[in-house]
Amino acid sequence: MDDDGESGTGLPASIEAAWGIRRRPGKGPRPGLTLSRIVQAAMDVAEAEGLPAVSMSKVAAELGVSTMSLYRYVAAKDELLMLMLDAAAGSPPEPPPGLGWRADLTWWSRQMMATHRRNPWTVQIPVFGPPITPNQLRWMEQGLRALAGTPLREDEKLGVILMLSIFVRSQAALFIQLETAFQGRQDDTEVGALAGYNALLRKVLDPRDFPAIHGVIDAGVFDAGDSEEEDFRWALDRILDGVARLFGE
Length: 249
Known about the structure:
249 residues; mainly alpha; Arc Repressor Mutant, subunit A; Tetracycline Repressor, domain 2; 11 helices; disordered N terminus
């Protein structure tokens, strides 16, 4: 491997690692230490202590090896984060047969949301660029296949998949952050939090200055919050309504 993190294939080390085509580490790697074990140990740390706790030294300690021994397998922490994200995503499950494009993308989006909810630390990992790791590309492939029978152009299909991916990730981040914020309160439910928010707004907002917000308050929107699934499905349906308009459905 050369100084810029690339090997003889011309691919970045992180991509070689994800696809399993990187050359074996040199100079006698520790017996039993593998890339998959390193990634799993990092995921265990993220699950137990949160993503900020993940470091090369912490992962090495979990595995009982020296920090330097990890660098024979993983070139940098960013590479490790990319591999963690790919492992958490996993290979997408096959959708039920016979779905139309809309039901297929609804199912695809829900499955993606489920991966984030199972691994909440994934929404904190920075976006390093367009998807290039195996499982990320498998998810892209499955999403594009859902649109195969539509008249959309190829760039439009890719745009739809990118839009849905961004939407799902942002919704997951919102739900996870709200869930964390509610924890530890006297009433840690969403309904309880919204009721408190409703009361607070009534105290601080003059309806003459904020008539639109008071309209929402008076309509009882904050009295009983929708479930996470209802919020997600409503927004997803609006996105798919827009996609349908592109080809006249």
